[in-house]
Write a structure and sequence with these properties.
The protein has 241 residues and is an all-alpha fold. Helix content is 70%, strand content 0%.
Length: 241
């Protein structure tokens, strides 16, 4: 996926890509510190990785925080809720355009499922049930929608994106190649399964938390899962994964 790189950073970035591959987490942390001397507060890091994701998170909370989302649901303002959701995920680069378009087509093709999605998303984000129950409820919806359409929408990125962007202090984003690569560098088993399931999500969440603790011990202080996801992505990009 294309990402704009300002000229003053591109020369150094190209040099870094010619260096040897990262082979463990110690290498990875050393690379990150060299690339971003001020860690997760480094201006280059903020510009490339954090600020635009934080912008989408703030937009999500301004449009559909728990109180506003609940009020709109009680009024059955499904169209307004869905329009707000499109503003939150339409432009983000964590999900490819093909998946986003397919998801929209699937919901547009089944208006009742669009309403079900909205109600299920609210429960996934804001209900008082356990995270396991909230997550299983959410993936059950995607399984039922998958059975109604040939469109490819049953995937980890689309399922994990909404929680991640609404509640990045708690919920994580999963993409197979990126998270498996980082887990391998850490010798951490996440039991990745392409079929959506609680065990993979739970172990991926624990991996994010474990990685956060490792970084804190190295005097790098990630603020939330946005920083952990960005760190994971940077390692994969550095190793051309």
């Amino acid at each position: 996926m294309y990402r704009y790189v300002p000229p003053k950073f591109k020369k150094q970035q190209d040099k870094n890509r010619r260096d040897k591959a990262l082979i463990n987490m110690q290498d990875s942390i050393a690379y990150f510190k060299k690339e971003y001397p001020d860690g997760f507060n480094d201006k280059k890091y903020l510009y490339h990785e954090r600020d635009y994701k934080l912008k989408f998170h703030r937009k999500a909370q301004s449009l559909l925080n728990k109180k506003d989302f609940k009020n709109l649901l009680q009024k059955k303002e499904y169209d307004e809720i869905f329009n707000n959701l499109k503003k939150i995920y339409a432009s983000v680069n964590l999900i490819d355009r093909y998946t986003k378009d397919n998801f929209k087509k699937a919901l547009d093709g089944f208006p009742d499922e669009k309403n079900n999605f909205i109600e299920t998303l609210y429960k996934h984000l804001y209900s008082n049930e356990t995270l396991e129950n909230r997550f299983n409820m959410f993936i059950d919806f995607f399984g039922k929608l998958r059975d109604k359409t040939d469109l490819k929408i049953y995937s980890w990125p689309i399922v994990s994106y909404f929680g991640f962007i609404f509640l990045p202090e708690e919920l994580v984003f999963i993409m197979k190649t990126k998270i498996e690569h980082a887990a391998d560098l850490c010798n951490y088993e996440i039991s990745y399964d392409p079929t959506l399931n609680w065990e993979t999500y739970d172990k991926s969440t624990n991996f994010y938390k474990d990685l956060k603790l490792k970084l804190e011990k190295e005097n790098l202080f990630p603020k939330d899962m946005i920083d952990i996801q960005s760190f994971i992505w940077l390692l994969a990009e550095r190793n051309k994964i």
